[in-house]
Amino acid sequence: MSFLRSLTLLWPGLPWAWLRGSWAGLVLATAFAICLNLSIMTAWIWTEFIELEMTFGIWAATAIIWTVSSVSALSTFPQPLINYRDEVTEKLFTDARDAYLARDWLRAETKLQTILTLSPTDGEAQLLLGTLLRRVSRFQEAKKALEKLTRSDAGKLWQHAIDRELSLIKQKDQTNCEEIKNELITGSYPEPSHQKAA
Fold this sequence. Notes:
74% helix; Serine Threonine Protein Phosphatase 5, Tetratricopeptide repeat; single chain
């Protein structure tokens, strides 16, 4: 278990809400936040309105919720998502890779989108899609796809390649900014289309 993943154990429900997008985990995390806020309010803000025994009871309930949920989270901690391909997705990936190498961008993107619909955690397909989007100058989409892959468990195997792709996108963005800046400075930008018609 990596250190950052294990930090989610400090807040009840967070391992499932953060690492798996579970609604039950989100409900538990929210319920704990409410209990903790109520405990803090009764201990330090509403001291004159709430009796001391009630404050201790609220703190005890909060501590019990935290202990029980942390112990249960340790025993059922979500493991990293493992990527596997069945025969269908393996064939689709082979077709997508071949289409990519043949520069058939539309066919490659279609195959990759199909793979990611069937297997959303396929890191290799996500990386190839990000690379394809960069190659066809869809830089914002490529950056978004690659950053999403970086945040996922599947991205750990491909981190070096992801970093390389993101640096290529950054270089291209800087080049485009320089070109636009030079056009604005020199005044050599294209005329608006309504002036051409006149």
